């Protein structure tokens, strides 16, 4: 029983670390979120913090997983809203948390190394996005909303790549309106109607 209780406490502490880290990065930015600062925020030493994660890279990857979980919890209740509209809302929200966008962008680049802890995360995330948007397009084809020759897999890939690329550009130039640019792309692809493109 003691071992089970200890395990539960370890899971709870890990969740506390991730939740706190999200707040710190959103508030202080990626550069203000060293292992030392994150450890202090949860009352641990650096060694104590890394006891719950294999490395700094694994910690930051877990932070991104936690962010995606929270975004899903926040927006999945809106079942009556077009999933693409929800995606645009997430993009608008991202503009309010530049530290998390920088973390995502940096790890996305580093994940090109297949041995990096974030590589599997981004592979899984891409597969999830492909399934989500691919299913959306497939449904749209059946109802006649989208052209029958619209390539489902290509649509999902390009939309994900466009969102990731816009985030990189936005970090360089914060005057870029990521959601609006993505919205224009969706309208041009026929995924959103022009008359609905002014609001999200």
TrEMBL record:
The keyword DNA-binding applies. Keywords: DNA-binding, Transcription, Transcription regulation. This is TetR/AcrR family transcriptional regulator. Residues 11-71 form the HTH tetR-type domain. Pfam families: TetR_N (PF00440). SUPFAM superfamilies: Homeodomain-like (SSF46689), Tetracyclin repressor-like, C-terminal domain (SSF48498). The lineage of its organism: Bacteria, Bacillati, Actinomycetota, Actinomycetes, Micrococcales. Residues 34-53 bind DNA.
């Amino acid at each position: 029983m003691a071992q089970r209780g200890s395990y539960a406490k370890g899971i709870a502490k890990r969740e506390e670390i991730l939740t706190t880290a999200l707040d710190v990065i959103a508030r202080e930015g990626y550069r203000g979120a060293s292992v030392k600062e994150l450890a202090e925020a949860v009352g641990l030493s650096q060694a104590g913090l890394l006891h719950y994660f294999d490395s700094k890279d694994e910690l930051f990857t877990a932070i991104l997983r936690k962010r995606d979980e929270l975004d899903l919890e926040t927006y999945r209740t809106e079942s009556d809203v077009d999933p693409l509209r929800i995606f645009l809302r997430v993009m608008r929200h991202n503009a309010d948390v530049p530290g998390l966008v920088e973390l995502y962008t940096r790890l996305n680049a580093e994940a090109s190394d297949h041995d990096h802890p974030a590589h599997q995360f981004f592979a899984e995330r891409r597969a999830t996005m492909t399934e989500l948007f691919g299913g959306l397009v497939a449904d749209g084809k059946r109802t006649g909303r989208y052209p029958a020759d619209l390539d489902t897999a290509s649509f999902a890939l390009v939309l994900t790549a466009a969102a990731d690329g816009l985030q990189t550009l936005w970090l360089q130039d914060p005057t870029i309106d990521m959601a609006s640019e993505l919205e224009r792309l969706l309208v041009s692809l026929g995924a959103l109607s022009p008359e609905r493109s002014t609001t999200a």
